[in-house]
Amino acid sequence: MAITIKKVDTPADLKKFINLAGKINRTDPNWVPPLLFDISHRLDRKANAYFDHARAEYFLAEKNGELVGRITAQQDDHYFKHWNEKVGHFGFFECIDDQEAANALLDAAADWLRKQGQVKMHGPYNFTINDECGLLVDGFETMPMFLMTHNPGYYRALVEKYGMTKAMDLLAYRTEANTDPDPAVVNFANLLKQKHEITIRNMSFWNFDRQLDWFVEIYNSAWEKNWGMVALTEKELRAHAAELRFLALRFPQLNFFALSAGKPVGMSITLPNLNEVIIKLKGKILTPKVVGLLTHKFESCRVFALGVKEEYRRLGVGAIFYVETLNAARRMGFKWGEMSWILENNQPMRKAIERMGGSVYKTYRIYEKAL
User: Fold this and answer.
1) Strands 66-76 and 54-63, how do they pair?
2) What is the pLDDT of residues 22-67, one digit of tens each?
3) Residue 273 CB neighbours (<10 A)
């Protein structure tokens, strides 16, 4: 029977859209159900600041009266402004192992983007490269880190048989906390501190508002030339920072700003892997198990954002951050950490991580297709 595609038009449709992920992934022990309030807020066009400069359509697929898939198609004016390319995105892709259903969903997204004047489709992005993105193509054996994606292994075949090809791989590196850093890197970091008068400031509850200004100042500067980057508005940056406030302040030892001559030049944000607890919540925050977010002894953490303003990158601030983060994680009892994600073509950062003992253990892929 033919696949039926319909737009998400009602609150009931949106509920089906959100809940489908649980149906598709229910037998995967490593899938982490998203918190319902979080994904509802993300998909709310009135609440999510992304929609101040973007548009999106949500689609559901049915077969024999049964819901079998979902997808979004989105166009971001800021992407075009930044890259001058008519590239639209798809995201939030979930589908049963059925090529006909996958083709119908991807066709729906492509058709919508084509009507918006786009000439190429990239994805998956939920909604941008600054959110969860990439299709997991290697490393299914373990639970994903907080704010990273996870999907069935057959998704790769569904997307590639549709005709999409690799645009870029995003790499996740793993390093063990008991790995001793390269002495040469440690010495280099110490010399840099002295030579360039670099000081490290931990994130502080008392100075958070000021440091939030630093976060906004550094973020777009540090990442503006990275592949696929879309600059965040100050409203978006402050919303993201506010979401991370509790985590960063709960673990200030893992979160740093680097200052040179008193000016903020870089930041490193490392988060505990909340998925160790979230996987037990089944998407619901109103449960006694949520106490685990406060009391759980986390074994793993993720270097979520490490960036340096372009004009200061030659100072080697990244090496300082690597050493500071590893030492703090060891003191706090973390067993291992993930550095993610890293663009496959970012050779300087890849070499630095590998010199610190990191190795690639998960690969996420962004696909593309001409429209």
Assistant:
1) antiparallel
2) 999 999 999 999 989 889 999 999 999 999 999 999 999 999 999 9
3) 24
Does residue 23 lie in a domain region?
A: yes
What's the Cα-to-Cα distance from 228 to each of 36, 125, 188, rounded to whole Å? 28, 11, 31
> C-alpha 107: how far from its chain's center?
25
Around Cβ 181, how many Cβ atoms within 10 Å?
18
In angstroms, the Cα distances linking 342 to 89, 247, 356 are 20, 22, 15
The reply to whether the predicted model has a pTM over 0.90 is yes
Bridge partners for 144 per DSSP: none
With vertex at residue 326, the alpha carbon angle to CA 323 and CA 328, rounded to the nearest 5 degrees, is 105
Residues 331 and 284 in one domain: yes
- Does 370 map to a domain? no
Helices (H), the chain: 11-25, 36-43, 77-83, 99-115, 155-162, 183-195, 208-223, 234-250, 275-281, 292-295, 317-331, 347-355
- As for how many domains the chain has, the answer is 2
Q: Determine the Cα–Cα distance for residues 276 and 170; give it in Å rounded to an integer.
A: 22
CB 182 within 8 A of CB 356: yes
Domain that holds residue 286: 175-365
Q: Do 164 and 180 share a domain, yes or no?
A: no
Give a yes or no: residue 342 inside a domain: yes
